[in-house]
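Data deposition worksheet. Section B asks for the primary sequence of the deposited chain exactly as it was used as input, without tags or linkers unless they were present during the calculation. Section C holds the resulting structure in token form. Section D is free text for depositor observations; keep each observation to a single sentence. Incomplete worksheets are returned to the depositor.
Section A, Depositor: J.P.
Section B:
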Amino acid sequence: MDKLNPITFGYEWETLILKPDLSIIEDRDIEWLGRHLRNKFPWSRTGYDYLGRRMDGRLLEIRTGILTSYEQLIEQTHLQLEEIKRICRNKKWTFLTVATHPAIGNAVGLHIHIGSIYEFVTATGIADVLIKYAPCFAALAVNSPIWSMYEKEEFKSYRVLHHADYCTNVRRISNPEVVQWSWGDDVCVKTDVHSTIELRITDAVSSEELLYQFIAFVDAFVIGFLKTNSQRFSKNLYLEYIENRFRAARYGLQARLKWDGEERDVTDILWDMMDIADFKSIGGGEVGLIKEMLKKRQTQADFCMFIYKYHNDLFQLTRELGNIMKRKNSFQDYLKKAPVLDTLEPINIDDFILSYINRETPLSHIYELLYLPYGVLNERLGKLIKAGKITRERTPEYGERYTRIKN
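Section C:
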């Protein structure tokens, strides 16, 4: 394949290491753990990253070396996981692999790389089309339904809703002739430093087996996509992608997405993507667990909310979620007995926007809800004004501010 030469992949899996009281361990301990893993496994690139926009702690970011096969993915990941779990047992630390700390919030993600590709402009064109599929992967990986005591259960991924504390953003599009490097997009071009394209939108996973299958699926799909795809970027693709990432965050695998002007269940789209995926190119990849999730529309977020029914104190929930990695097949066991969930009708986007407008709400706050292009957002707000639902004021000091009209 001329676009990927050679075929390589990798990941950064953000995880939390907690003290016995479930607070974040000290920075020096995270740094030590990363050094220990790199010394024990010379191919490891594991280290730390910062926790959220407030920089109030550090994540353990598990990284392998550059991978060329599914077998390598399993071997290198499993060795590091076993060592991390051994150290956590000895030090009485909790190894937490959900996509947020339920009691304190903050974003914890899984970033997947596919390469090797070297031309920035070429990679940009690929990323601009791959965004269409990013919400599908996000729906499959939702794993943060409880962000804090104030935000819970309405969305299956508060991390995606909150743009991962500005670490996974709606992709910015620019003319390929003058495109510049940017960081943190849902699908991010990294050819200047890693010769890869990176999928950043997805929540961190809690199951070792799901980690293997999910990474294999993403990489195999991109490889197959590049062999067969002839789709081009369009305004319609872009606007559907933005609304679909919202629907994926809210409903997970129960979502219905806008797809080429029609409404389709995200699970149906993912089945089609499975047919495109070229698993042979990475030396295999069993995805039976993902197939079972698609059949039942069940996700890790649904598993988390099931646990929350019995452990509704957020610290109790955090402790119980920390036990998931100790019990190797927790998610699989839940999935066997879990019911089939129905597809849900999506909330109207204008109603969602309206719910966040109160008194003198700045335009910037409304924009950050979804990152709709300003022209599109202004058009939607104009319709709400005409419908008598909001008013707008413009002042030199504050620019545009909107107020909801109470019924």
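Section D:
The chain is about 45% helix and 15% strand.
The first strand starts at residue 8 and ends at 18.
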